[in-house]
Design goal:
Blueprint: H1 16-27, E1 39-43, H2 50-61, E2 72-75, H3 88-99, H4 111-120, H5 129-147, H6 149-157, H7 168-198, E3 199-200, E4 203-204, H8 206-215, H9 222-225, H10 238-256, H11 264-267, E5 273-277, H12 286-301, E6 306-313, E7 323-324, H13 328-341, E8 350-354, H14 363-371, H15 384-407, H16 414-417, E9 423-426, E10 432-436, H17 449-470, E11 482-488, H18 504-525, E12 531-537, H19 545-558, E13 562-567, H20 573-584, E14 589-591, E15 606-607, H21 613-626, E16 638-643, H22 648-661, E17 666-671, E18 689-691, H23 694-707, E19 711-715, H24 719-731, E20 739-743, H25 748-751, H26 757-760, E21 764-770, H27 774-777, H28 782-795, H29 801-808, H30 810-832, H31 842-851, E22 858-860, E23 863-865, E24 882-886, E25 893-902, E26 905-907, E27 909-910, E28 917-918
Parallel strand pairs: 1-6, 1-8, 2-5, 5-6, 7-8, 11-12, 11-13, 13-14, 14-15, 16-17, 16-19, 17-18, 19-20, 20-21
Antiparallel strand pairs: 3-4, 9-10, 10-12, 21-24, 22-23, 24-25, 25-26, 27-28
Helix pairs in contact: 1-13, 4-5, 4-10, 5-6, 6-7, 10-12, 17-18, 18-28, 18-30, 19-20, 21-22, 23-24, 30-31
Length: 920
């Protein structure tokens, strides 16, 4: 930007400073923190060349004054209707990337691309079918010799495959040299190509996965499978040729950025490869077709080493979803967010940025571009030779240290080297996730100590069961133990949401007291199945849920005692993906929390113990319409509905509330926290007014309450954001000294925090949904009384405010009910075997749960549960008990109770005597 033709400088359009800043940071981003980057499409809806000028400026920005700063390729404008040959763009791109490698970064080798280029340019093979793959290998090796000096010298030493006569010594040389320097290197080349392109069955390379996707079965020999790509076969399929060559190029570029111990040139490759396109043209142009294959390949390979920007996008194809920015400033903000937090697997692969010819003297842009006129890349401290010497010295020192570990007894302990052992592994946030015994390998942070204590309690209870069963004879008629896996977010990671605030602690306490209660009955009577509980950490807010679900499915395939999974306390898209994996594996699942209705659509093996969000929203709407919850006990006139369009739970609850309460009286405020684990709105998300920050949200709510004091806030977002919202409200409470909030069940997690909501804002009137309130039900429900007694035995010695709130929290009772419900299904399945323990498996448990528990269901601590799947049962309980409580510093007050407490006891009306309202 600082040198050359002024036309190659970046124009100072409004917002271009934020865009270029994000561009620079992504180009020089550290390898360890990289994720894939969306292709930036500079769209010019009104024509002009603003996008081309930005691309030209970016290209100049990477050239510096004296040397290339980052490897890049520039594809010039291709006139309409003048499509180049199929390989032209690939050759242009790869040649420029090799030529623009910065000094000290070595030569760029594109082995996979060269190999496949040789394949697609090979002449038609007309020999015997069983010999064609050998002919293709020989052709590829001949092409390989043209750029490999070593292969060329070996071939020359081999006598060019001809014995020209002469002395006996010459004949002997030709007899030995041909096989040694020609045939052997060619055979080794073929084996190396197989290994490079196919990998191993357990760890297939990209080409093996691509062939399996195309043909349905994995390849066993590269050259046999590549016969389909030989020139003549792909003449009528240019997109297929682009597809395979693009994956080859990207896999080579990713490999070129991976460090090697004795390769300092690779370690110096600290920047991404940048691809710049002058003009993408219309949706069917050659460049746009090329870009579509680039985007798909980046997504398929999870390629992190490439960043592409295209200008002159005249029209957009709807074949691939895009992120749509309003301008350069928002695009810069999106890219900065990706640089900091990475991209999720299901995010779009492109970002469309509208640009137009406009004022080029935006003061902020001019000032920023003046301060940062060019790309700034990390400077290596040592030269390549010094780095090689240092690496050799480090290797020698490592050998000495390793020898010391081997020779000195007791200094080598392989188990302590791996922080994640057994069926756990490092997750997204650097914490151990997966399945562990009790607390093994999970978080050790201060905020996770309470969770650790419960996991250790569960571990002790597992050991007690194992010790009790160890002495039984082989022919003992009593049932053996079965394993249940708890699936939830057990760690938070750095700056992540505390699992205590996320509801995990409450659920684990319910699981622990239920396990002790179940095992006491089972071991005393010998007619029930004792349970062992394993903890599966799905990562902060279920970020690693699919990978952990795969691990559970693998364990279940080898361990028939695993009878089911309980958990899924948060409705998120990763949760849905994990449930589909477990459902495919045939593992019964029971929910421990009130969640989005969408969970029930993820498979027939999931059973809901709580009321759905749709039912909870109907009761909230009825309560808002019939109760006087605003200042002075007056009825609500308007509602400010706070929702998060990226959160499945929040979106489900908010959409159902607005439908039940009425869109005309509801203002929807959409707020998404900056650290949202899935930042894109869910498909079909609720519409409303976007609010960028929690401060703006508090200001908007205060304005609404000031204009209409009978405005109530309906909070369908998460509890972790509720505390921040109240803190902001307190700063501006002069405009709204009091607010009334009606919240979903997730807000109860805030009541178990060290700071209660009233500590943040004294003028709060809080009403919230609870999935059954055990202290209210204890007098009429034996199960609720048994739950409270079990809880008090385990935690009654804790007199803290948190423990009192936990005892009243519906999450604890729901987790108790979930494990009790699954245990009852296991018990009934065991009875159907006639006492043959070896016949009790997950299929039998699933059959019992789907048919429904005998006796018409189960009277739980949170009300009657009958979640069968037959006869249109839906795997949920119709008319499940729900309460609306009024929170306060002391014990909460039940304002609404609707649903079935126990068989024969259904609550159909709510409200004070003489003013009752029918339950919806």
């Amino acid at each position: 930007m600082s040198t050359g033709d002024p036309q190659s400088r970046i124009p100072a359009y409004p917002g271009v400073d934020r865009f270029v800043d994000a561009f620079d940071k992504l180009v020089v981003q550290s390898r360890r923190s990289r994720s894939r980057v969306p292709v930036v499409l500079l769209h010019e809806p009104d024509g002009g060349d603003a996008g081309r000028r930005i691309v030209a400026g970016l290209r100049s920005r990477m050239r510096g004054r004296s040397e290339v700063l980052a490897p890049h390729a520039h594809i010039p404008q291709i006139p309409d209707g003048a499509d180049p040959p199929p390989l032209h763009l690939f050759e242009l791109l790869t040649n420029q990337l090799r030529e623009t490698m910065p000094p000290g970064t070595g030569e760029l080798h594109l082995h996979s691309y060269r190999l496949l280029r040789s394949v697609v340019t090979a002449p038609a093979l007309d020999g015997l079918m069983e010999r064609r793959h050998t002919e293709l290998r020989n052709h590829c090796y001949a092409q390989h010799r043209q750029w490999s000096p070593l292969a060329q010298v070996l071939w020359w030493l081999g006598g060019r495959d001809q014995a020209n006569g002469g002395t006996l010594l010459e004949l002997l040389w030709n007899f030995v040299a041909g096989p040694l320097f020609q045939r052997l290197p060619r055979a080794l080349y073929g084996r190396r190509a197989n290994r490079r392109m196919l990998g191993k069955p357990r760890n297939p390379r990209w080409y093996a996965r691509w062939v399996r996707q195309q043909q349905g079965s994995p390849p066993t020999d590269f050259f046999r499978s590549a016969l389909d790509l030989v020139q003549g076969e792909l003449v009528d399929e240019p997109e297929r040729m682009d597809r395979v060559l693009m994956q080859a190029v990207l896999s080579d570029l990713d490999r070129a950025c991976r460090t090697r111990f004795l390769n300092p040139w690779r370690r110096r490759r600290t920047t991404r490869f940048v691809l710049l396109f002058d003009e993408a043209g219309h949706e069917d142009s050659r460049v746009q077709r090329f870009l579509r294959e680039l985007r798909s390949a980046v997504d398929d390979l999870r390629c992190t080493s490439v960043f592409a920007v295209a200008g002159g996008v005249r029209s957009l194809a709807a074949r691939i979803p895009d992120i749509h920015a309003t301008g350069l400033a928002q695009a810069g903000a999106e890219l900065i967010n990706i640089e900091r937090r990475g991209m999720l697997p299901d995010q779009p692969t492109g970002i469309v940025v509208p640009v137009a010819e406009g004022p080029e003297e935006d003061q902020a842009a001019v000032y920023w571009l003046g301060r940062w006129p060019t790309l700034v890349t990390p400077s290596p401290r040592w030269g390549p030779g010094a780095e090689v010497a240092g690496a050799l010295g480090a290797a020698a020192l490592a050998v000495v240290v390793a020898a010391g570990f081997v020779l000195v007894p007791g200094t080598w302990n392989g188990e302590e080297d791996d922080p994640c052992q057994g069926s756990t592994f490092l997750g997204t946030d650097g914490q151990c996730v997966g399945v562990g015994e009790g607390s093994a390998g999970f978080g050790k942070g201060p905020s996770e100590q309470a969770v650790q204590a419960v996991l250790e309690q569960i571990e002790r209870q597992n050991e007690e069961v194992d010790e009790e069963l160890a002495g039984r004879p082989a022919d003992d008629p009593r049932p053996g133990r079965r394993t249940v896996v708890y699936f939830g977010p057990l760690t938070g990671g750095k700056d992540a949401e505390d699992p205590v605030r996320g509801g995990t602690l409450a659920e684990l306490r319910g699981i622990a007291v239920a396990q002790r209660h179940i095992n006491a009955q089972a071991l005393r009577s010998g007619e029930r199945v004792p349970l062992r509980v394993l903890a599966a950490n799905a990562g902060d807010r279920f970020k690693d849920a699919p990978a952990v679900a795969e691990r559970i499915a693998e364990l279940a395939a080898s361990d028939p005692t695993i009878a089911g999974v309980v958990g899924f306390g948060q409705s998120r898209r990763k949760t849905y993906e994990a449930m589909r994996i477990l459902d495919k594996a045939g593992i019964p699942m029971v929910g421990t929390s009130g969640t989005a209705d969408e969970l029930l659509r993820q498979g027939t093996h999931y059973y809901q113990t709580a009321a759905t969000d749709a039912r909870a929203a109907e009761l909230m709407a009825a309560f808002a319409s019939g109760a006087g919850i605003t200042e002075g006990g007056r009825p609500v006139r308007r509602v400010s509905l706070v929702a998060d369009a990226t959160d499945a739970y929040s979106n489900s609850l908010a959409a159902s509330f607005r439908a039940a309460y009425g869109a005309g009286r509801t203002d929807v405020l959409l707020y998404t926290p900056t650290d949202a684990p899935e930042p894109d709105p869910i498909p079909g998300a609720l519409g409303g007014r976007p609010i960028p920050t929690v401060e703006d949200l508090a200001r908007e709510v205060c304005r609404a309450v000031s204009e209409e004091p009978r405005t109530a806030v309906v909070w369908s977002a998460r509890a972790s954001q509720f505390q921040l919202f109240l803190a902001e409200i307190s700063h501006m409470s002069g405009g709204c000294p009091k607010i009334s909030v009606l919240a979903g069940d997730d807000v109860t997690n805030a009541l178990t925090d060290d700071q209660r909501p009233w500590d943040h804002f004294k003028g709060l009137s809080l009403f919230y949904v609870s999935h059954g309130y055990a202290p209210t039900l204890a007098a009429e429900s034996p199960e609720a009384a048994a739950f409270l007694a079990a809880y008090d035995r385990a935690y009654g010695g804790d007199r803290s405010a948190r423990n009192r709130a936990m005892r009243e929290d519906g999450h604890v009772a729901l987790a108790w009910d979930a494990l009790r419900y699954l245990a009852e299904g296991i018990d009934q399945a065991w009875r159907t075997t006639g006492g043959h323990d070896d016949r009790l498996d997950r299929g039998l448990v699933q059959g019992v749960l789907y048919q429904g528990l005998g006796g018409g269901g189960f009277d739980g601590a949170t009300g009657h549960i009958d979640a069968h799947g037959v006869a249109s049962g839906g795997r949920l309980t119709e008319g499940k008990l729900l309460a609306v409580l009024r929170g306060r510093d002391g014990e909460p007050v039940t304002e609404l109770l609707c649903g079935t407490v126990a068989r024969g006891d259904e609550r159909t009306r709510w409200g004070p005597k003489g003013k009752e309202h029918p339950c919806p």
